[in-house]
Amino acid sequence: MMAVEVDNKKKFSDLPKRSLTAIIYGVLWLIGIYFGGWVLALVTYLFFSIATFELIKLISI
C-alpha cells in the first residue's frame, strides 16, 4: 500500500502541510460519498419506479 511507504527523512515542518492535505482529501471523500449516495438513491428510485410502472402496464393488458 502507498500509506506504508512513508519517507522517514521528511522534516517535521512538512507535517502540518501534509496533515492539512489529508484533511482536505478526507473532506472531499466524505462529500463525494455523501452526494454519490444521494445520486445512487435517486437512480435506484427512478429505476424501480419505471420498472413498477412497466410491470403494472404489463399486468393490466
Query: Strand percentage, roughly?
Result: under 5%
| Shape assignment | rod-shaped
- By DSSP (H or I, 4+ residues per run), the number of helices equals 1
Mean pLDDT: 82
Radius of gyration: 23 Å
Break the fold down into its secondary structure elements and pairings.
Layout: H1 14-60
Please describe what this structure looks like.
- With about 60 residues, the protein is an all-alpha fold.
- The chain is about 75% helix and about 0% strand.
- It is rod-shaped and about 70 Å long.
Key attributes of the depicted protein:
about 60 residues, mainly alpha, 1 helix, about 75% helix
Can I get a quick summary?
The chain is mostly helical and 61 residues long.
